[in-house]
Amino acid sequence: MMSKIRIKNFGPIKMGLIENNGWINISKITIFIGNQGSGKSAVAKLISTFTWMEKALSRGDMKISDFERYNRFRKKHCAYQNIHNYFKDNTYIEYVGKLYSFTYRSGNLKIKTLNNPKYYMPKVMYVPAERNFVSAVSQPDKLKYLPQPLYTFLDEFERSKFEISEPIELPINNLSFKFEKKKKEAKLVGGDYEVILSEASSGLQSFIPLFIVTKNLAEGIGKEFDFTKNKLSLNEKQKLRKQLLEILLDKNLNEDLKKSAIDLLSSLTKNDYFFNIVEEPEQNLFPASQRKIIFSLLKYNNLNKRNKLLMTTHSPYIINYLSIAIEANFIKSKIKNNPNLLQKLDKIITIDSTINAEDVSIYEFDEIEGSVKKLKSYEGIPSDRNLLNESLSMSNEIFSQLLEIDQEI
Fold first, then answer.
1. How far apart are CA 279 and CA 210, in angstroms?
2. pLDDT averaged over the chain?
3. Of 80, 200, 317, 399, which has the fewest beta carbons less than 10 angstroms from its beta carbon?
4. What's the order of all strands across the beta sheet hosting 108-113?
């Protein structure tokens, strides 16, 4: 059973999804498209928040009563994502996860425990649209009043950079990325030149942090040293985790002991899959580069069968590239025993970026009606009758109208 969410009267969302009893399914690949201010990011942020809350409950970091305190969900957890002012008197939100369901109405949050014997621990990464800051500014962590998710993303980018031992080949512009630890300099390396990341183009400043963090987190799933996994019960892990947190908060203890506690704490919170939530992956990128970053995100999402990728977008190309990845997967299934054709297919689109149509859900957001609808498909391929393609074709219609006037002159 996949996770799902339904929303009414929250920010620009009014009636919510107008089908499926209002439920937005969170698939392996979920896309939100629509105009700015239509609520795409608001829903993505709610999904990120609920996923984190469920994880915190499963690890024993928090209790149900901690989250159910009056207005705590709104004023603390939603404030972290800067959506706390989206609530109205008649706001209704319901999220169903794996272990818990969350229902918000009339200012109160209620949580129920579900009878699901198996829960897989997610590593949730929210990649905000403002990510250019982490590349363009020399010390973004020193800036005040930036969105909180940006600081979290910055921490992941900094950690990922320090784990780089050799230059990383990038999927666009024939570039590589390297990080000089002594100078703390991030650089792009071309055929005969180097440039500091903060001096690179806006598209590269947006793309590089997204790519580096995605690659690092996706490849890191399951690599933690988990020596306690089969030795401790859930209750024992929760008690030990509480003791370790007390050690970390004790200012009188030395750093060596704290480091040991962090290492053990990491083993207790082993992540089973990567949930990558990306705002506007196409940001400041040429269409050809958009294609390459999308195929890269799909590739890393395919590394683990439980991985999930959620994207918000304004780009019509994103839907088209997803269609290509779906069709390529269909062809791959037909020629899987033909090495020559597989090699030919791989030159067009890397085989590890192909996706199953059943793993994709695309939702359109309407900022006027405050509604959401699921994009239809034809034999698994997303319909080209969507808001983004209609906006793209509108320019042709306008040009035709101009030609009509020109002919009358």
1. 10
2. 86
3. 399
4. 24-25, 4-8, 92-96, 100-105, 108-113
